[in-house]
Amino acid sequence: MLKKEWTEQGFIDEAVAEGTDLKKEIRRLCKEKNAVILAHYYTVGDIQDVADFVGDSLALARKAAETDAKMMVMCGVHFMAETCKLLSPEKTVLCPDLNAGCSLADSCKAEDLKKYKEEHPGYQVVSYVNTTAAVKALTDVVVTSGNAKKVVDQLPKDAKIIFGPDYNLGNYINEVTGRKMLLWNGGCHVHERFSPAAIVKLKALYPDAIVMAHLECKGPVLAMADVKGSTADMLKYAGSSEAKQFIVATEAGILHELQRMCPDKEFIPVPPEITESGLECSCNECQYMKMNTLLKIYNTLKYEWPQIEIDPEIAKDAVKPIERMLELS
Fold first, then answer.
1. Of 22, 68, 228, 284, which is the most buried if we count CB atoms within 10 A?
2. Full DSSP string of 30-89
3. Cβ neighbours of 182 (radius 10 Å)
């Protein structure tokens, strides 16, 4: 039975006995309930360590869909849990905290995109995967930061395209493909806080370091990067490179996986230009990702709530652009 306070706050934080090994209990519940834990690279290290799979949002959803697990816990943000449900409608999808939103996904509301499409007849919509199911339902093809160029390159050269919601990613794709897509003015609050000035300071301290930047960063930041790409691209490059130092411009949670993969290398996070508190900070973090905690994961498994449900009509249309992307990539 759900407590009123749980539904009001959007998560369960029931206390456990002192000394409880939450990681051990989470793994016990996973075995008992045939569940898998999915952790995005931007969650804290303890959560990545307890997870069955660690990765980017779409890759995690696809991986979980291939398992025989009946239940999955998506430790990321809300739209990622929706994507899991779209690809595994028959499975129970749990989200440890319903408040874990996404500034990028929130920057493009379905009703606003619908209106924009009506104002631009003849245009097809290419949406970044960091969007709600309702926005995906209005989309022709979904892309990731890793495959956006490849997918867009395969669309007709004269195609009229609306790209959203990430302006920085869309601007980069316009540059490297020669397209003139209409760009939605959305962005990730984490990647928007990186500045060239911070990278200049770090390069002075680490002159031999390779600069890696996520494609959600602003153009001037990307212009300073040796490696531009997705989190998966950064991991791949760091693992194969002979370089020993890397300056990293993306959410600081990725450093846990980078360090695990390359224990002999040094990874330096680029600090934000402006922090939400106005204080100096050595790293740039997403407060939504950090809403995931071991206690919430334990409770969501124990009580099997919050569960993600999507309107069947929206789900039917939202899965189509994902399938189209898989065909093109």
1. 284
2. HHHHTEEEEEETTS-HHHHHH-SEEE-HHHHHHHHHHS--SEEEEES-HHHHHHHHHH-T
3. 15
Beta bridge partners of 40: 55
With CA atoms as reference, report the closest residue to 94 among 161, 44, 178, 29: 29
Phi, psi of 97 (to 5 degrees): -150, 115
pLDDT in tens, 100-117: 999 999 999 999 999 999
Report the 10 Å Cβ neighbour count for 275: 14
pLDDT given for residue 273 in this prediction: 81
Distance CA 55, CA 117 (A): 32
- Judged by DSSP in three states, 278 sits in coil
57-83 confidence digits (pLDDT tens): 999 999 999 999 999 999 999 999 999
Tens of pLDDT, residues 129-152? 999 999 999 999 999 999 999 999
Alpha helices in 120-230 (DSSP H): 133-136, 148-153, 167-177, 196-205, 219-222
Taking 3-state DSSP, the helix, strand and coil percentages for the chain, each rounded to the nearest 5, stand at: 45, 15, 40
Q: Tokens in use for 235? A: 């991991």
Q: Quick one: tokens of 175?
A: 């540059």
d(CA 172, CA 218): 9
Residue type, 125: V
Which pTM value belongs to this model? 0.93
Run of H or E residues at 249: strand 245-249
Q: Are 41 and 55 in contact (CB under 8 A)?
A: yes
